[in-house]
Design brief:
The complex is a heterotrimer of chains A (262), B (292) and C (266). Chain B is α/β, with parallel strands linked by helices. Chain B has a domain of 65 residues. Chain B has eight helices and eleven strands. The chains are: A mainly alpha (262), B alpha/beta (292), C mainly alpha (266).
């Protein structure tokens, strides 16, 4: 029977969709017909949807997103610009690795967010503070993954290129870079997630605009549907970006990198 | 098929099943089949892909204490059949019996030596060999003793507390063999056990296997791609057709036992190999276009 | 002389690494002595020695103990709950494809989203007390544990399951002999990640909305420009994070004796 075939083929997405749809439906129905909702405490999907439409139509949402993205992109680009060269240096020269590794590992293992109040105090409220936070959080995955990528380059391949008369430049472009790419993509995925945290945290404390700030403000003013709408938007963006990176990774790097599962 | 002269060391049975009455001296004439497979069929239905019929109408008989090899083109279902015998796969059709009783699942009288070794990487060699005994409920001291004996038997004395990743391929396979022998099964199923080993280790292991088999008198079903290996080790070689697998021909190996390496260098041995090869070749050409 | 060279070559890693950190600390310490800072900057600047002094003073005062205790409770409670929920759920999701398919959207969405966005909501629901922080820690720590357990269960080698089954093992024995030992390294790696996330949760949670706890202490100090106090708090969080992470890494290494070496990535 055709229906059964469809089910077995697409079982995963069907069940997933059903699960989410079921939850939303139950949520809406319970709060509409069973329990009266205290608007200061909870809300339901229909109200969230309305708030979301209003935000989009009012242009508020896009404005906030643009502000947040700006800070994110600044911090992220700096993270790439600093992280990859440092990582490559560490991977290429043992001495550099020995010198920098303990320091960087210690930093990576520490909650750098703990310095957020300080950063805000020093850099004030606004774009710079947020970008610095994003940079601090996003730079480490780039460093370590670039390092791992360079390290994992097959010595044999380097010898092969050398034996055909390749110079240092050739080695970089023909062997090291392609071989490092999968690691860098995976690192980007992790850095993206961490950078996102940086923006949100920055906006909670040090901003007057942006999506993180909006969510916090909605919370303060008990505008629950709007807050939920904001959270949902962020969730969707986060998922799209992360899963997109994953697909990219699958195309460019068939094997999984790292123990940080997902 | 070359069977014009009875003095040849090889005879091909005109009948598909194992009991050939071709020659008065054939020791299988009075064979009571120990393992009987009739009309076995199995189709794999993987998700999102077309179904694959691995076995169709397979008839096979194995005598008690016999060393039987299965050869055939790649993908013909040899390993699948072994898994069916082991009880891990259920056939879609047909009847399989061991000593008259139907096979419905794994059982202690059958044990397999896997091609990919299948050692639990977090267990030491000793703990790996003990696996079957552990599941049987044998108390620890008895397990240790038996496992140690077997480890000595396969020549891994001193490696009891090593981890699999510290061993070479040949050593790992020996652990697999020891593990299979530990529960003292009647039937040993071997799925290309020496395929991943280098040529020298392979020769060594074949010799050891023959010695162990000779002493332990087990029934062995041996799957391999190597005609030479099949001819050297077995009492009979069954050639399967290309997928879906079915018995194509049964070839009896009349070489004396115990067999030694020098036998492989004789002309008779070459004849045997040629006979097997000619049968196999037909399947390879017909189904896979090889040599066409 | 050759003796020194010998020691150096043997321990080059530690010497260079430790030396670098030492250098940074010394440089940091000496900055105010070498350069006169512009007025604005000197307000925010502090040195390691001052930070240590402040640390000592704070410990002597009782208030510090309370803050530390509160943060510790939030951390441990949240992490504990995450372990209790994450491991079984990861196991079930790994073994049952139906459960996996049903929960996957939530896990993906919640894992990709910075858990921090739920902070205002949690404060709204649970107030400024411990529980909003415990919840943020819980959400943060849950996913590495859940996902890694799931991966550990899912990635079990089919051949090994078949091997054990062929010797007559039932489902429970397959679990015990193959699935669980195989998953253990994954779970411990997940724990390592979870600890980092948990500490982050405590820090940000307390920054955002709390009256007690090290984070709130830091936030208050920051607005009062007591930079030393902020550094003390940061240092303590970093120190604890390091200790826990290194301990778990040690345990990981011990448990992974049976694994061939894998490239260290993040």
């Amino acid at each position: 029977m055709a229906l059964k075939e469809i089910y077995t083929e697409y079982q995963r997405p069907i069940l997933g969709l059903a699960s989410v749809a079921g939850l939303l439906l139950a949520w809406e129905l319970v709060l509409t017909y069973l329990i009266p909702v205290n608007p200061f405490f909870f809300t339901k999907p229909s109200l969230i949807a309305t708030a979301f439409r209003e935000q989009v139509l009012g242009g508020r949402l896009s404005h906030d997103l643009i502000i947040s993205s700006r800070a994110f992109l600044w911090g992220f680009s700096c993270a790439i610009a600093v992280g990859i060269p440092v990582g490559v240096l560490m991977g290429w020269r043992r001495r550099a690795e020995y010198t920098l590794d303990p320091f960087l590992t210690a930093l990576y293992a520490s909650p750098l967010i703990a310095l957020a109040p300080l950063i805000i105090v020093v850099f004030g409220v606004g774009l710079v503070a947020k970008s610095v936070l994003v940079f601090l959080l996003a730079v480490f995955p780039f460093i370590f993954n670039a390092f791992a990528g360079v390290r994992s380059t097959d010595r044999l391949l380097i010898n092969v290129v050398r034996s055909f008369g390749g110079k240092e430049r050739d080695l970089y472009f023909k062997v090291i870079l392609p071989s490092t790419l999968p690691y860098l993509i995976a690192g980007s995925r992790i850095a993206l997630g961490r950078g996102l945290v940086g923006v949100i945290v920055g906006e909670f404390f040090a901003a007057s605009e942006g999506i993180g700030f909006a969510i916090a403000r909605f919370g303060d003013t008990y505008q629950l549907p709007e807050m939920f709408a904001g959270i949902s938007v962020l969730m969707i963006i986060a998922v799209v970006v992360t899963e997109g990176m994953r697909k990219l990774e699958a195309v460019l790097a068939p094997w999984r990198v790292g123990q940080e599962a997902r | 098929m070359r069977d014009r002269n009875l003095s040849l060391r090889v005879q091909s049975c005109p009948r598909k099943s194992g009991a050939c009455n071709f020659s008065k001296t054939c020791y299988l004439r009075d064979m009571t089949p120990y393992i009987q497979a009739q009309n076995v069929a199995l189709t794999f239905r993987p998700k999102n892909r077309d179904p694959v019929t691995a076995l169709q109408g397979l008839d096979l008989e194995v005598g008690k204490g016999e060393f039987l090899s299965l050869v055939g083109p790649s993908g013909c279902g040899k390993s699948t059949f072994l898994n069916v015998l082991l009880g891990l796969l259920k056939p879609d059709g047909g009847d399989i019996r061991l000593d008259g009783k139907k096979i419905t699942g794994p059982g202690q009288e059958r044990a397999m030596v896997f091609q990919e070794f299948g050692l639990l990487p977090w267990r030491t060699v000793l703990a790996n060999v003990e696996l079957g005994l552990e599941l049987k409920g044998v108390p620890a001291s008895m397990r240790h003793q038996r496992s140690s004996e077997l480890i000595k038997l396969v020549g891994l004395n001193g490696f009891e507390h090593h981890y699999p990743h510290e061993l070479s391929g040949g050593m790992k396979q020996r652990v697999g063999l020891a593990r299979a022998l530990a529960t003292d099964p009647d039937v040993l199923l071997m799925d290309e056990p020496f395929a991943a080993l280098d040529a020298q280790t392979r020769d060594l292991m074949q010799l050891e296997l023959l010695q162990i088999w000779d002493r332990a008198k087990k029934t062995v079903l041996f799957v391999t791609h190597s005609i030479e290996e099949a001819a050297y080790l077995s009492d009979r070689v069954i050639v399967l057709t290309a997928r879906p697998g079915r018995t194509k021909s049964v070839i009896k190996i009349n070489l004396p036992r115990p067999r030694d390496y020098e036998m492989r260098l004789t002309a008779d041995f070459n004849d045997i190999k040629a006979t097997i090869w000619n049968t196999l070749k037909e399947e390879l050409i017909a189904r896979t276009g090889y040599g066409a | 002389m050759t003796r020194l060279v010998q020691i150096y070559t043997e321990r080059e890693h530690q010497i260079l690494g430790g030396g670098f950190i030492l250098l940074l600390i010394i440089a940091w310490e000496s900055v105010p002595h070498l350069v006169t800072l512009p007025r604005a900057l000197s307000l925010f600047f502090t040195t390691p020695s001052k930070v240590s002094e402040t640390f000592y003073e704070l410990v002597v005062q009782n208030e510090f103990q309370t803050h530390f205790y509160v943060s510790a409770v939030e951390f441990l409670l949240g992490l504990g709950l995450a372990i209790l929920a994450g491991l079984p759920l990861g196991l079930i999701m790994g073994r049952s494809s139906v459960v996996d398919a049903m929960f996957d959207p939530y896990v993906t969405a919640l894992n990709a989203t910075p858990r921090i966005v739920f902070l205002p909501l949690l404060i709204l629901w649970l107030g400024l007390g411990i529980w909003s922080k415990v919840m943020i820690v819980f959400i943060g720590a849950l996913f590495p544990l859940l996902i890694n357990t799931y991966e550990g269960v899912k990635n079990v080698d089919r051949v090994l399951v078949n091997v054990v089954r062929s010797f007559g093992a039932n489902e429970w024995q397959v679990m015990k002999m193959v699935v669980l030992p195989n998953s253990l390294p994954y779970v411990v790696a997940g724990l390592r990640l979870a600890i980092g996330r948990a500490i982050l949760g405590v820090v940000v949670g307390e920054f955002y909305g709390a009256t007690k706890g090290l984070g709130s202490m830091m936030a208050k100090a920051a607005s009062a420009f007591q930079v030393d106090v902020v550094f003390v708090g940061a240092a303590i969080f970093m120190g604890i994070s390091l200790i826990f992470t290194l301990t778990v890494k040690r345990i990981e290494a011990n448990l992974s004796r049976w694994r061939p070496d894998v490239v260290k990535t993040f």
